[in-house]
Write a structure and sequence with these properties.
The protein is built from 19 helices and 14 strands. By secondary structure, the protein is α/β, with parallel strands linked by helices. The longest helix has 25 residues, at about 535-560. It binds one RNA strand of 77 nucleotides through β9, α12, α13, β14 and α16.
RNA sequence: CCGCCCGUAGCUCAGCUGGAUAGAGCAUCGGAUUUCUAAUCCGACGGUCGCAGGUUCAAGUCCUGCCGGGCGGACCA
């Protein structure tokens, strides 16, 4: 595909005298106008002529330079149309040659990208909110890996902070009442909720105990508090792992904030050594108002000497730099923490670290319930496990109804149900807030994951039947794919889409693109039969089916959805 | 009060980082199955692109100001 735009670019450059990299090749709004377009407005000044006249003259000259590409002036535009057989042969040839790696490239070779994702909090349920970080982060990581980068996915577990003092206090008092073993997360959540209700009801001793517990924890003492904290961590991680297995997500590193405990002192010393720290109201801070007016200072140490979230993230980012010398360090964290990451980068900038701007906050919108914001303190959360279960059960019902003979219906139902949930989180621009609506999450029609999976299954089915019937061996009649030109052009854009999704860290670009491809395919094969045609025709159509199926399979994999062969 | 983000069809969203008559899905209504899975396809309905200015040959897209919603704003994470 790129060979077409390259040819157009260099021909235009030769005729206009402009640099080929400066020429913007667009896609016409109306596909019937052509495959590519070049607006001539920009040339009007230098050539001192009206754009339509330039277009007409250029189109004539270009015709001779371009082999297999027709150039036609339409008003101020030059529209280009690739000869249909050439288009089909080229695109399908590219896909076939690259196989499962179509669209991949090696532009990131030798560079490492660190991605901080998921990062659930110990003793709290994995909510549909954490799903966003996990699913978006994992998709970004796979997409970047397809561009040749070495990726390091880090699950930065929230296992530190005052809330553990609270939990230990709650367990000490009421732990005997609850069943921590069989359903630890829910038991811990109710303990956490009880702590807050009773503390608000006037039991001041609770907060004191929590404070003492956390101080003991931070002191490093191997006492009862640390033992309980350790047990909480183990129970929670085991629960989280169940979800990660269902989502098919793996991490290069799973590290708690506690890991950075030994680095906190050196981290603060290192920042102090650059002379940017100061004491303010009893706390140790870095002033950031010189970078951006109104930016609040970053607190490194509280009045009582203990560290904060920001200190631990600074320790972590130094550690990551030393370990990986990353080209980018991405934090897939909700948009409510924007200020935190601006401050993190701000401190690095003030320290004079030349890699400070490699730190990027990949923010995503908040997940909200129709009844309001989610709150684990109030117990108002939707458990991810429940969402996945319900989606799987709905999928199973539909299979039972539409495809009762499907083998491994339970396994496929899991793939489709999880696929629906995952895709629902990836399909819109990540910065947009989402309201959690059950009917949308477990929907399998229209712009959904199952729609893409279904398209894939249909195409697979055609391939299977072709193999059974022994069809498709003839020399393909590429010109016969003229009626699938839009599918081919979309397929041809896949490498660009992947590249863009990677640099923007925006999986929705890929999700939107694959939906469009599926729509065009469904539209096409609703009206065109593949099997049982003239051998050259069937062969050509089968080639299109294969290239499409393979590319959808690849896209689903990058997004983190399974691609069942039947459903 | 200050800062950042969002505002496109009844609802959920695309709109290729300024270009040709603004596109999908859901919902509603009407249609398509002797033949590769109807989780599909086709058609109809539906828009002063929040409002007002400005820059430009050209603005949904860039700038300014308002309005509405979200999120932040030193010892939580």
């Amino acid at each position: 595909m790129q060979q077409f735009t390259d040819a157009i670019r260099s021909a235009l450059a030769a005729q206009s005298g402009l640099k080929s990299s400066a020429l913007k090749i667009e896609t016409p709004r109306d596909p019937s106008l052509g495959d590519f377009a070049f607006p001539c407005f920009g040339l009007a000044k230098s050539m001192k002529q009206a754009p339509p006249k330039i277009a007409a003259e250029l189109a004539d000259k270009l015709g001779a330079d371009l082999e297999g590409i027709e150039a036609v002036a339409t008003g101020p535009y030059i529209n280009f149309r690739v000869e249909r057989a050439l288009l089909a042969r080229t695109i399908i040839g590219e896909v076939a040659a690259a196989g499962a790696n179509y669209g991949h490239n090696t532009s990131g070779a030798g560079q490492t990208i660190v991605i901080d994702l998921s990062s659930p909090n110990i003793a709290k349920p994995m909510s549909v909110g954490h799903l966003r970080s996990t699913v978006i982060g994992a998709a970004i990581e796979r997409i970047l890996a397809s561009q040749g980068y070495a990726t390091v996915g880090i699950n930065h577990i929230g296992d530190w902070g005052i809330q553990f003092g609270k939990l230990v206090a709650a367990i000490d008092r009421w732990g005997a009442d609850s069943d921590l073993e069989s359903d630890p997360i829910r038991a811990l959540l109710s303990l956490y909720v009880r702590f807050h209700t009773e503390a608000e009801a006037g039991d001041t001793s609770l907060e004191e105990e929590a404070q003492q517990n956390f101080q003991e924890l931070e002191s490093g003492e191997e006492g009862p508090v640390r033992a309980t904290w350790r047990r909480l961590t183990e129970l929670s991680l085991a629960e989280f792992q169940k979800i990660y297995d269902r989502l098919g997500v793996n991490f290069s590193q799973v590290r708690g904030e506690a890991f950075y405990e030994p680095y906190l002192g050196p981290t603060i010393e290192r920042i102090e050594a650059t002379g940017i720290t100061e004491m303010s109201q009893g706390a140790e801070i870095v002033d950031l108002s010189t970078l951006e007016k109104n930016m609040p200072p970053c607190l490194l140490r509280k009045t009582d000497g203990t560290t904060l979230y920001a200190t631990r993230d600074l320790a972590a980012v130094f550690h990551r730099w030393e370990q990986f010398e990353f080209a980018r360090c991405l934090y897939v964290v909700g948009s409510d923490q924007k200020l935190h990451f601006r401050q993190l980068r701000g401190v690095c900038q003030r320290m004079g670290l030349d890699w400070a701007d490699r730190i990027e906050h990949i923010a995503f919108g908040m997940m909200r319930l129709p009844e309001g914001k989610m709150s684990s303190r109030k117990g108002r959360v939707v458990f991810l496990e429940d969402v996945l279960d319900r989606a799987r059960d709905e999928a199973f019902k539909i299979i039972a109804e539409k495809n009762p003979d499907l083998k491994d219906a339970r396994g496929v139902a899991e793939q489709v149900g999880v696929g629906a949930v995952v895709f629902n989180d990836l399909k819109r621009e990540r910065i947009k807030d989402i309201e959690f609506v059950w009917s949308e999450v477990v929907s399998f029609e229209g712009d959904t994951g199952p729609y893409v999976q279904y398209t894939h299954a249909r195409l697979t089915s055609i391939e299977r039947k072709a193999a059974e019937a022994g069809e498709g061996g003839a020399e393909p009649d590429w010109a016969a794919l003229a009626d699938a030109d839009q599918v081919l052009l979309t397929l041809g854009r896949y490498p660009d889409v992947l590249r863009s999704a990677g640099t923007h860290a925006e999986p929705s670009e890929l999700a939107t693109w694959v939906l469009g491809l599926c729509r065009e395919l469904n539209n096409w094969y609703a009206g065109h039969r593949v099997l049982g045609q003239a051998p050259e025709l069937s062969a050509a159509r089968l080639q299109l089916v294969k290239a499409s199926r393979s590319t959808i399979h690849s896209a689903l994999g990058l997004l983190g959805l399974a691609a069942p062969d039947q459903m």
